Structure formats: C-alpha cells, structure tokens
Fold each of these.
Amino acid sequence: QVQLSEAGGGSVQPGGSLTLSCVTSLPIDTIYYMAWYRQRPGAQRFLVAASPKGSKSVYVTSVEGRFTISRDNAKNTLYLQMNDLKPEDTAVYFCNADGAPLDKNTWGQGIQVTVSA
C-alpha cells in the first residue's frame, strides 16, 4: 500500500500563499486518483481539489482560480498551490490517494493551514 507524507502547512495572513506537498511511497504516475481534502473543526472533511490520472483536475467552487493541484511524477509528489488565501481556508488539509493500483483509499496524516491577520 501507499504511504503519504504531507508538508508545507503553516500560518499566513489573508491574501498570502502557501504550497502543500504530499510525497507518495509508490510512483505517483501509477495512482489513478490523488486529491486534497480539508476539514475545519467540528465539520466534515470536504474535497478541495482532485487530480484523476489522465483527466482534468477539478476544484470546489470556493477555491477555483486561487488553488492549483498538480503532480510531479519525477518527485512522486502531489502539490496544492494556494494563492489569495482567506480566513475561511483555515483547516487541516489531507492528501488522499485512491483507485488502481491501491487496494484501499489512503489518507495522509493531515497538515494545518491557518489564515489570519
């Protein structure tokens, strides 16, 4: 099975930028579905952006135009570039892998992103 290791979170002021990374223990170009989710305190975990292999990336409406999801096959890394961050983007962000060749849906440990003045 795959292991996911996230990095890049932290605190930033509104309007700032952060880039999250998720390193996979298997070649990322073999994994069908890679995505970022986020979870605010007391709330459910929701999809932020997804990168299905061979298909167009998809984004939740609230981050379209501000966030970019991408894969770097050479580094086996999934990125989430986040620009123009807003306080409502504050959450724990999780990397997710699913589909072939994995046997089960897999989550990273989560990483905190805090946006405040």
Amino acid sequence: QVQLVESGGGLVQPGGSLRLSCVASGDIRSSDVMGWYRQAAGSQRELVAQESSGDSAWYESSVKGRFTISRDNAKNTVSLQMFSLKPEDTAVYYCNVWRRVSGSNVNYWGQGTQVTVSS
C-alpha cells in the first residue's frame, strides 16, 4: 500500500502561482509513475502531469509551459509548480502513484487539494 498526502492548494488570483506538494509513504518504489490529476466541478478527472523515473515528464497540453512537475525519490515526494494560473485551472488536484502489477493497473490517490483561481 501507498499513502499520499497533498498540500499547497488555495485561492490565487489569475496570473498567480501555487506549488502543490505530495509526500508518499508505505510501499513506494522508484519504478512507480507519479503524477497529478485534477477534477473540476462537473467534469471527469484528468491527468495534468506525470513523471517516470528516468523518462521525460508528460504534460496535458493546456498546462505545458506553465506547470512543472518535479520528483525527489530520496524524499518520496512529487511537486507541481504552477505559474500563470487561469480560472480554468480551478479544480481539486490529486496526487497519484501508478504501477503495473501482474498485468493490472494499480493506482493510489491522495485525498485531494482544492485550487481556486479567481479574482
């Protein structure tokens, strides 16, 4: 099992910045894929950014150039630095760990942290 705890959400004005952090504990592995999803009200959860150890990070097109994901395997943390925030970035953001086990997808989720971009 993996436990994930997010922090860093809040209210920010358009154009502002926020940094989300996630600490993983339990059976976290360096081979795990770590990332961030978000879910806006009335919408499906979507992948925002993802990083595998040794691979390039992946970003959803609307956040490319504005968000940066970073991972520290020594500390079992993953962060999401968000710049130039827009109202459409408003959502609950979830930290995620994904791995393949015996051909099946295994996902672990944090409790979520609210990000609200509004003037």
